[in-house]
Design goal:
This protein is of the alpha+beta class. The chain has 7 helices and 28 strands. The chain is 15% helix and 43% strand. The N and C termini lie far apart (148 Å).
């Protein structure tokens, strides 16, 4: 006759209890199997019979032995029939119940034990197909939405450049799992806990982290071209439930079409353009200001110490800005064309500009202003002012004071007029010398040199004014000529006055009627 034995660690069940085994497949909501659970109930009786002495103390000692054995988790649970092993597992002890008996625990004590484990309970090494990590539940969700803070636009600028911004998306991904305490004979020690439950959950979650292009493309719904998009500002947040055995990761990305035509680079930009028309000077002014927010590129790696920021926000903002700044004038022109019907173009030289850098925030802000003032005449000049003042001929007459004349002095024409004069004032601001004082001696001599003043081109311009007079008048005399040069500020000014008239011909008129 065959003999069945049952042991838990060093504890031998005698008599051997009745055993009931159920197998549960642990699944996600879509039916994916993530684990198995074997639930085992033992129904047995403690008794000193047939060879022992009956009595409450004898039964109480048997209860103590059972409670002590069941107090330790993950020992080897083994069921044999003679020399054949039927069940071999390392269970978790869920409950132990010592039940009432009809003899008040004097001769017997019924008991119930509930055990559970994860692998197939046989000695052949067969398993359920669910390999580590061991988890009981898991969930994974993706969320994708268009950012309403960044509107798409597409401009074909007059210089042949395409200036564009494509839709920006926000992608989030959450993965969570609840792990199980799993015991085995790892390391040669029976009843060894493989990993804490939260670490089992972590090991599972780690296999699910990272972006997945299929959730961005959303074929059949969004139908985006994932080849254009990059993933930036990757942020991970981790929640560990150590006693709950849980582990969850929340990931967020900005999904940005970095390689789309017309997009300047790996940054987001918000800018506005204002067109103003002044009645004071008749000029159209276009102001453009904006902020470039760089995007960060991160790599979390797979092991400790591998986290790295492969491209920081400021560097990407700077690369983006180096492209954008070449488009500001053409953007201003585009806005002007969309606002007015003027045929005047903007001056290519910016009127005012300011740029702000914030490396800590990864931003570059700018404020540029253009207007449709005429182009500068002096090459290399930053600003120019040309003022022409003409003094026209006036009557020359004698003024005779007569004593007692109530009507005032007597005015007598002497039949001639004054000479006309023209005063031309030119002021030019050139680029100032460098503020780098590492080579002050060479800068000093360079600054003092009048050769850096735009004298030649200014005199060429003055020649035009002089020629205009000499072509029209027979007598032209230069009556004053002064210049000023400030080598530190690059400011140069020249003031010239001519007096002119004709020797013959009709006399200049001094009347308006």
């Amino acid at each position: 006759m065959s003999t069945v034995t049952m042991n838990y660690g060093d504890y031998a069940f005698s008599p051997v209890p009745l055993m009931n085994i159920s197998k549960e497949y642990q699944k996600t909501d879509d039916g994916t199997i993530v684990g198995t659970l074997f639930n085992v109930s033992l129904e047995g009786t403690l008794t000193p019979l047939p060879s022992g002495t009956v009595g409450y103390l004898a039964v109480d000692a048997l209860q103590d032995g059972l409670r002590s054995a069941m107090a330790e988790q993950g020992n080897l649970f083994k069921v044999q029939c003679d020399a054949t092993t039927l069940i071999e597992a390392y269970p978790r002890i869920n409950s132990l119940s010592l039940n009432t008996s009809n003899n008040q625990w004097v001769m017997t004590c019924p008991y119930s034990i509930n055990l559970e484990w994860d692998d197939e309970p046989n000695a052949s090494g067969e398993n359920s197909g669910i390999m580590p990590p061991y988890i009981s539940t898991t969930s994974e969700e993706w969320s994708l939405e268009f950012s309403e803070d960044n509107a798409a636009f597409d401009w074909d600028l007059d210089n042949g450049t395409k200036d564009a911004m494509s839709p920006v998306l926000r992608l989030s991904h959450s993965v969570s799992a609840t792990g199980k305490k799993h015991y085995s004979s790892a390391g040669g020690t029976a009843g060894q806990l493989d990993l804490p439950a939260w670490e089992q959950a972590r090991n599972y979650v780690m296999t699910k982290m990272g972006q997945d292009d299929q959730f961005v493309a959303n074929t059949g719904v969004l139908n985006l071209d994932v080849s254009e998009y990059g993933y930036f500002n990757h942020i991970r947040s981790v929640t560990i439930g150590e006693l709950a055995g849980s582990y969850s990761v929340q990931e967020n990305w900005i999904v940005f079409p970095e390689s789309a035509t017309g997009v300047p680079g790996k940054a987001l930009e918000d800018f506005s353009i204002e067109v103003r028309e002044s009645q004071d000077d008749g000029l159209l002014t276009v102001g453009i200001n904006g902020t470039v927010q760089g995007l960060e590129e991160r790599s979390y790696g797979t092991t400790s110490g591998q986290f790295a920021i492969t491209a920081n926000k400021y560097d990407n903002a700077l690369s983006f800005w180096n492209v954008v700044k070449t488009r500001l004038y053409w953007r201003a022109n585009e806005a002007l064309n969309n606002t007015t019907t003027t045929t005047r173009g903007l001056n290519t030289q910016v009127k005012t500009s300011s740029i702000g850098h914030s490396p800590g925030k990864g931003t570059i802000s700018y404020n540029y202003e253009y207007d449709d003032r005429p182009c500068n005449i002096i090459s290399g000049s930053k600003t120019e002012s040309i003022q022409i003042n003409d003094s026209h001929p006036t009557d020359i007459f004698a003024e005779l004071t007569v004593l007692g004349r109530a009507n005032g002095p007597v005015l007598q024409s002497i039949s001639t007029v004054s000479a006309a004069t023209r005063d031309v004032a030119i002021e030019v601001v050139m680029e100032a010398p460098s503020g780098d004082c590492t080579s002050c001696s060479s800068q000093f001599s360079s600054m003092l040199s009048l050769s850096n003043a735009p004298t030649g081109e200014v005199e060429t311009l003055l020649c035009c004014f002089q020629t205009d007079l000499t072509d029209a008048y027979s007598q032209v005399f230069k009556t004053s000529d002064s210049s000023s040069w400030n080598p530190k500020t690059g400011r140069y000014s020249r003031n010239v006055t001519w007096t002119y008239t004709n020797c013959s011909g009709s006399a200049p008129s001094t009347t308006f009627c």
